[in-house]
């Protein structure tokens, strides 16, 4: 009991620190953009792989899983290191400007917040495409274990991917204080457009 209470206190303290650093660096909007942008990339990449596999009549779930995992981890690693380097450079520039304004008298907490946010943004950027990709790939793991027919896995994956796209669009709409349903439908239209392009490529080859 004592251990669980201490763990709860540490967790609350850590979350409080994250909120504090986000407030100092004004990074909430940046984190949201990274999460949606790369989550969208993950969903659309998997959607493209799965739709293309369906049109190509791929019947082996392991083929789709290997291709999907390769793509999603490549996006995750690229997103993590790319975001860290870009955000670190931007935060360092802002700190140098602040040092000039304040003649070097900058609150040490700002340095801590800047470093933390660079890693935090990179983590969000790297994990978001992996998360949305794994949602799309999940049915094929069940198919690999002979718990789902491959065609059912395809249909389930399509539904999950479109649901992910709609959810991200809906969330964007709420952030923009607009109509979340309209934003969600716009995301679905993008998914449908990608499927049509893949279909046209399939019939032309």
Can you walk through the features of this model?
The chain is mainly alpha-helical and 205 residues long. It has one domain (28-204). 88% of the residues lie in helices and 0% in strands. Helix 2 packs parallel to helix 4. The N and C termini lie far apart (64 Å).
Please tell me what the overall shape is.
elongated
Number of helices: 6
Give the CA-CA distance, first to last residue. 64 Å
Along the chain, the helix and strand elements come as: HHHHHH
User: Would you identify the regions where 5 or more consecutive residues have pLDDT less than 50?
Assistant: none
Short descriptors:
205 residues; mainly alpha
Secondary structure layout:
Blueprint: H1 2-25, H2 28-55, H3 61-101, H4 108-144, H5 150-175, H6 180-204
Helix pairs in contact: 1-4, 2-3, 2-4, 2-5, 2-6, 3-4, 4-5, 5-6
Describe the structure in brief.
By secondary structure, the chain is mainly alpha-helical. It has helices spanning 2-25, 28-55, 61-101, 108-144, 150-175, 180-204.
């Amino acid at each position: 009991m004592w251990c669980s209470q201490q763990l709860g206190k540490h967790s609350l303290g850590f979350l409080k620190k994250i909120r504090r650093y986000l407030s100092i660096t004004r990074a909430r909007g940046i984190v949201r953009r990274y999460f949606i942008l790369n989550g969208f990339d993950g969903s659309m990449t998997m959607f493209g792989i799965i739709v293309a596999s369906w049109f190509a009549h791929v019947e082996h779930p392991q083929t789709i899983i290997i291709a999907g995992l390769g793509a999603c981890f490549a996006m995750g690693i690229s997103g993590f290191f790319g975001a860290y380097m870009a955000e670190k450079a931007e935060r360092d520039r802002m700190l140098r400007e602040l040092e000039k304004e304040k003649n070097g008298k900058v609150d040490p907490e700002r340095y801590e917040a800047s470093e933390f946010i660079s890693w935090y943004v990179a983590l969000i950027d790297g994990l978001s495409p992996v998360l949305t990709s794994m949602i799309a790939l999940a049915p094929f793991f069940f198919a690999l274990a002979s718990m789902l027919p491959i065609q059912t896995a395809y249909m389930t994956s399509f539904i999950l991917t479109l649901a992910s796209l709609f959810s991200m669009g809906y969330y964007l709409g709420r952030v923009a204080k607009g109509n979340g349903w309209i934003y969600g439908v716009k995301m679905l239209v993008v998914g449908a457009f990608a499927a049509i392009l893949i279909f046209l490529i399939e019939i032309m080859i």
